[in-house]
Amino acid sequence: MEIEERKFKSIGEIVGNARRQLLIVDDEEINRLILGNIMGSQYQIAYAANGAEALKYVQENYRNLSAVLLDLNMPKMDGRTLLKVMKEDQRTARIPVLVATGAKEEEVQCLREGACDFFAKPYDMPEVIRARVANAIKMTEDSHFIEVAEKDPLTGLYVRDFFYRYCEQMDRKIEGEKDAVAVDIDHFKLVNGLYGKEFGDKVLIKIAEILANMVHQYDGIVCRPNADTFLIYQPHQEDHEKHVAYLDETVNSLLGSAHIHLRVGVYECVDQTIDVVTRFDRARIACDKAKDNYSRSFEMYNESSHRQQLEAQKYISAMEEALKQREFITYYQPKYDLTGDKPRLAGAEALVRWQSRAEGGLIAPGKFIPLFEQNGLIYKLDLYIWEEVARQMKIWKQKYAVDFPISVNVSRVDLYSPHLLNEIHGIIDRNGLSYRDIALEITESVCAADTETILSVVRNLRDEGFRIEMDDFGSGYSSLNMLSKMPINVLKMDMKFFQRKAGNDEIMDAMIRLIIDFAKVMKVPVIAEGVEDKEQADYLKAVGCDMVQGYYFGRPMPADEFEKLLQQGC
User: Fold this and answer.
1) How far is it, in rounded angstroms, from Cα 41 to Cα 569?
2) What CATH number is associated with residue 346?
3) Cross-strand pairs, 528
4) pLDDT (average), residues 37-52
5) Are 469 and 441 in contact, with CB atoms under 8 Å apart?
6) 21 and 142 fall within a common domain
7) How do strand 547-549 and strand 328-337 relate by DSSP bridges?
8) Which end of the chain has a smaller Cβ tally under 10 Å, C or N?
9) Is residue 119 located within the same domain as residue 57?
10) Is the pTM for the entire model greater than 0.70?
């Protein structure tokens, strides 16, 4: 489809027929009157008889003055002096000045000194004068309109789109390597919340001033693309850490007691063959990495971080579709009871695997589970797995009269969901199961993170009839006091914590016996996971461990392979 070309109006067209104001400066009254008659039908006219009188008027009315028509040879202050003073004053420098002269040799000199145009004496071509004045005003107003559009109104820095264009110009005009830098104010919303928006604006303005002064000496440019982020493009610098330390020190010395923490990401010696947006995306990747590192205020971009973030985003983006396509598969790792004469199948732990069509194979859980836990997607995945386990459990109970539970993992995100109980109730009811058919595994680290909140949720789950298993005990830092308060039914001991061979180390042996004895006092069974050989299995049976799980007894396997164990009555 053909796209219609957009036509943008100039600022002059927007203003429309509003009468602009002109100042005519000439010591000859007849000349003032002639110009006034020529221009009066289109403009409001003010008059000055010399440069001093004109300067006073300009300084008082610069906001409303559209142009000055200036004679050069006048008493008190001549035209050139007035022109010089106006161009040196930021308030009046933008006002276009058209010089009236009868001497051709003065025209070029006036243009060099800041005049935007000239017209000849005597005034025998009114249409030419009117056209020159109109063009000068239009060019000035359009230029001012563009300047306003390209600058952030709060800080005066470039806005994003214009900044990117100037970056491209820098590539063409300045040879050599360049650095792309992203600066972020850590927890800026808290700054606004604690000290108010006015103080927050002051912080932004001060940081903008410091950055602008810093990069000016390197011929760099700065932009503020959004609320609390700044971007810098500059010729390559060597000592970024020194610059970051100076920035942090200077900002906080100017802002008093409120400590402002800045994070800086640097994409050094950018690849100038890629687009500008991508360069600053990479600087932001480094900046985001700095947010997770409290020992450093800045990070350098590297390809490894980039690949990791791209991979993470790929998994996040693919997750919803993968759920719809049922790409997540439940594997089962058997658990065996050691209390009899020989090991007996007494349960299983459900584990998730991602059979990705896009990747053409299995994605390791370590790649996507921690990622989903960080951004909250794990709750959707867990609901899916719980439903799959319940559906499979219903089939096995009908076919094999299975009377042991299948354990499912419950994450920190799950426990904070207000809908957790209702969701699990629904899964149990839909599949005709009892609450004893599904065991809930909660890791030691989750239990230790927020004891009171977790205690309340876990207690409610156990009161509903669910069997609660504390997973990975021994791999974290939870205290025995905390463990004594947890409403658990099973303690899972992580054998990976014990690095040396079981039975061959007095300290390890004492720790394992202590955990088992403590569990007996609590009247809960102990499951040892990660059991890899017969020697470990025999040792655990000897010291009174109730159940075991690990590669020696069985690796995680698909449902159809686990079903063979049920058929064999293992």
Assistant:
1) 106
2) 3.20.20.450
3) 493, 548
4) 89
5) yes
6) yes
7) antiparallel
8) N
9) yes
10) no
Among 460, 452, 368, residue whose Cα is nearest residue 419 = 460
The 10s digit of each residue's pLDDT in 207-244 is 999 898 888 888 899 999 888 899 999 999 888 888 88
Q: Which residues contact 59 (CB under 8 A, 6 or more apart)?
A: 89, 91, 92
Lookup: tokens for 32: 């003032």
- For the chain, the maximum distance between any two Cα atoms, rounded to a whole number of angstroms, is 125
Looking at residue 560, what is its pLDDT? 95
What's the token pair of residue 560? 């159809």
Asked if residue 6 is part of any domain, the answer here is: no
For residues 141 and 45, what is the distance between their CA atoms, to the nearest angstrom? 19
What end-to-end distance do the CA atoms of the chain give, in Å?
Answer: 68
Is residue 2 a part of any domain in this protein? no
The angle formed by the CA atoms of residues 486, 434 and 421, to the nearest 5 degrees, is: 55
Domain that holds residue 366: 312-568
- Give me the mean pLDDT over the 446-473 stretch: 81
CATH number at residue 54: 3.40.50.2300
Query: pLDDT digit string (tens) for 158-216?
Result: 888 888 888 988 888 888 999 999 999 887 877 777 778 888 888 899 899 989 888 88
478-to-444, 475, 481 alpha-carbon distances in Å: 7, 9, 8
* 1 in a structural domain: no
Final residue belonging to a domain, choices 115, 150, 185: 150
